[in-house]
Amino acid sequence: MAITSYPNVMTMGGGVGDYPYYMQVARGLVDGHKRLFKFGFNSDVNDSTEDCWDVGGVYTYQTSALAMTVTSDAGATDNAVQVTVQGLDASYNEVSEAVTLAGSGTATTTQTYLRVFRAFVSGSQEPTNNINVTNGGTTYARISTGENQTLMALWTVPAGYTAYLLQTDVTAFTEQNNKFATVQIQTRELNGVFRTADKFAIVENTHHQQYDAPLPILEKTDIRVRAIASSSNAHLEISAG
Description:
This protein has one helix at about 20-25; strands at about 10, 20, 40-45, 50, 65-70, 80-90, 95-100, 105-115, 115-120, 130-135, 140-145, 155, 165-175, 180-190, 195-200, 205-215, 220-230, 235-240. It has about 240 residues and is mainly β. The chain folds into 2 domains: about 35-55 and about 155-240, Jelly Rolls; about 65-145. The two termini are about 30 Å apart. The model has no long low-confidence stretch (mean pLDDT about 90).
């Protein structure tokens, strides 16, 4: 049965067998609440700002809802691979669709997406190469070979929800000496501009930030993690969650 009152942020109930509050959220038992963990990876950041996602470079946001083409770099070899695309529709409502790659290794969604923030292999057949989610030559998501899941530290709060940022973890490493990353956590409210919500430098280390009073992020707000390296040959690997 769903829980509709929240007397204690750490535990729910009052007897033997109580579970932590966030466990109850993860179990889907707290009305109006859901858990989210977004994580991303960029394998080569140098002295130009890049977002933390598997394609690299700066992410392009749609300005209107678009149907997506899902294509394997292996072409017909990946015929019958099933991929689920998740994101938001034109009204910022959550939308998800599973498509099956046809004989040429391509499929097109019937849903249209204003935002794409996750894709994953949802069938029993594993692809043999990268799978790209695109429209008009722009890539909005990529499933890299062997991952079977996008790695995108990007998300947009759906309509009707407020997000509460509990924690961020960012790691920067390189085989080069004396190179560091400057990292920004940024948000952009509807019809606004991206603003920096947190910023820090990392030298061959992990930055962990716990927000004891979680940061509220309004509906329809874009969230991204981006980084820039201290030199053109830093070759930083950046992971963020």
